[in-house]
Design goal:
The chain has 16 helices and 18 strands. By secondary structure, the chain is α/β, with parallel strands linked by helices. The chain folds into 2 domains: 207 residues, Aspartate Aminotransferase, domain 1, CATH 3.90.1150.10; 256 residues, Type I PLP-dependent aspartate aminotransferase-like (Major domain) (Aspartate Aminotransferase, domain 2, 3-Layer(aba) Sandwich), CATH 3.40.640.10. The strands form 5 sheets. It has a 7-stranded mixed β-sheet, sandwiched between helices. Strands 14-15-18-17 form a 4-stranded antiparallel β-sheet. A 3-stranded mixed β-sheet has the order 3-4-16. Bound molecules: ligand PSZ. Ligand PSZ binds next to helix 7.
């Protein structure tokens, strides 16, 4: 059954969109793919979610809230860029588990690594890495993580998930801030006692500066710097920490240079103002956190000028600049780390990762390394089994030149999106992207949601973000042929809206 499904030939015809013709893969043309067993095209038999998904939803609903569940997946039969559901539908997946599948489902390289005898103990046993690491732990860290460390950063800490990585990065900044305040002296007995009770001086009044529309995770420290939807924040107490405006730019960025420069200057001034204001409130800022491209908040970009300016401000105040690359990291922008696009004078102080990196964690500069044991710590502090797969992913990226692939496919996708917004100006706007990390806005949220649903019924799965945006978060192994399948479906859905 699975083999039959995977060999299904494309049934999508070549459609002219008036501006440009996209050829979809057909029996006569070899479909480009990184995994030979990937299907050639979507196959849809039922509505999505189908009857089996509905049944499973009812069953799961007796145990927990299922309001967010879209459909149930058959991970056994999902392959490459295609996600199979439990009703036998196969979708081109441009959202990939909220941006967290680097190579595709059941990639043969990962399956091979899974089956290797020498990996067995690492896959079965999950150690408390901070206290009982396996003998090969530092070589695994070097081969997988350090081989792709952002230039200038040579320290790394693994963690379980994105929020956990952000949370512990914040702690690293607070520890470093207080160490400097003490001028190299050890903490006083009073500090050691008062921190346990949750009072000053051991629990100091410190803050982290973040940005409007930023998203950094749902644990309490990460949530304190998250400013997206009410559903993330309602009912939770948060500290009074400073938040500055993230630039609200016009796209394409290079056509609005003057306006965008003025907007970025305004935001940078706001950052300086907030730093002073919180210093005056006796709640100084210990670090700045920002996403290279705000993702949950709506795929909001800023230019190199903004990030360079932010780094200058952080340096002037002698506080770290922490980049949350949980979603942007691992190649999707066409560089391994999104911040490599900006030509920063110096490396950022901290770079958090998770999602496509398969393990959470953060890279950091020497001066942020805690001096005492057990300061940045928990039971697992990561998972060595993820390092086996990450090493394969990193090797694949290098061997198959996937960053170049992302650039090529991404520029093709973006030009397709430009064409579509020219063709449907009342519906679509603000096509934008770096690599395949692309997005486009709709005239309103209802239209966006309707289009996402109709695309899914045609076997193309995408995600939303912000108020009225769809975002592309495909694997790094996406080819132009996949983009053609999307563009054909997109054109037909949007064309249908108009009539
Ligand atoms: O609804 C949610 O909780 C979602 S939807 C997408 C995310 C979370 N992204 C996670 C994320 C992120 O995009 C950035 C930039 N930083 C931190 C996080 C948190 O990562 P996790 O979800 O692994 O805790």
């Amino acid at each position: 059954m699975a083999a039959l499904l995977w060999s299904t030939k494309s049934c999508v015809s070549i459609i002219s969109r008036g501006l440009r013709t996209y050829g979809t893969p057909s029996a006569s043309k070899a479909v480009m793919k990184s995994d030979p067993l990937e299907p050639d095209a979507p196959v849809v038999h039922t509505a999505i979610p189908g009857p089996r998904s509905q049944e499973l939803l009812t069953e799961l609903g007796t145990i927990q809230n299922t309001g967010a569940v879209q459909f149930f997946v058959d991970y056994e039969r999902s392959r490459g860029n295609y996600l199979a559901d439990v009703d036998g539908n196969v979708m081109l997946d441009l959202f990939t588990q909220i941006s967290s599948v680097p190579l595709g489902y059941n990639h043969p390289r990962l399956v091979k690594a899974l089956l290797k005898e020498e990996n067995r103990a690492t896959l079965i046993n999950r150690p408390a890495l901070g206290v009982f690491p396996p003998g090969d732990w530092s070589s695994r860290l070097r081969n997988a993580l350090l081989s792709v460390a952002p230039p200038g950063l040579n320290q790394v800490q693994t963690m379980a998930c994105g929020a956990c990585s952000v949370e512990h990065s914040q702690k690293a900044m607070f520890i470093a801030y207080q160490r400097r305040q003490r001028g190299g002296q050890p903490p006083s007995p009073e500090e050691l006692q008062s921190c346990v009770e949750g009072h000053a001086p051991g629990s100091p009044n410190l803050s982290v500066l973040s940005f409007t529309n930023g998203f950094h995770g749902r644990t309490m420290g990460a949530l304190a710097v998250t400013h997206t939807k009410w559903v993330h924040k309602l009912d939770f107490p948060v500290p009074d920490w400073p938040c500055a405006s993230f630039p609200n730019l016009q796209y394409p960025l290079d056509q609005f240079h003057r306006e965008n420069r003025a907007e970025e200057d305004r935001c940078l001034d706001e950052v300086k103002e907030r730093l002073h204001a919180w210093e005056k409130k006796n709640c100084p800022v210990a670090g700045i956190i920002v996403e290279p491209i705000q993702s949950e908040g709506g795929d909001n970009h800023a230019t190199s000028y903004f990030f360079q300016g932010l780094q200058d401000i952080a340096n002037d105040h002698e506080i770290p600049l922490m980049l949350d690359e949980v979603q942007t990291g691992c190649g999707a922008t066409g560089k391994f780390w999104a911040h490599e696009h900006w030509d920063l004078k110096d490396a950022p102080d901290i770079v958090c990762f998770s999602k496509k990196m398969l393990t959470g964690g953060f890279f950091y500069k020497d001066h942020l390394r805690p001096q005492e044991a057990h300061r940045i710590f928990n039971t697992w502090v990561g998972d060595p089994s993820k390092m086996i797969f990450l090493e394969e992913v990193v090797n694949m990226i290098k061997e198959e030149g996937l960053l170049q692939r992302v650039k090529d496919t991404g520029s093709y996708l973006l030009s397709g999106l430009y064409d579509m917004q020219t063709k449907y100006p009342g519906i679509l706007s603000k096509a934008r992207g770096l690599g395949t990390y692309c997005a486009i806005d709709f005239k309103d949220a209802d239209t966006r949601d309707k289009v996402l649903n109709e695309l899914r019924q045609k076997g193309v799965h995408l995600g939303s973000c912000g108020n009225c945006t769809i975002r592309f978060r495909p694997t790094l192994a996406l080819f132009r042929d996949h983009v053609d399948i999307f563009l054909d479906a997109f054109n037909s859905v949007i064309g249908g809206l108009k009539s």
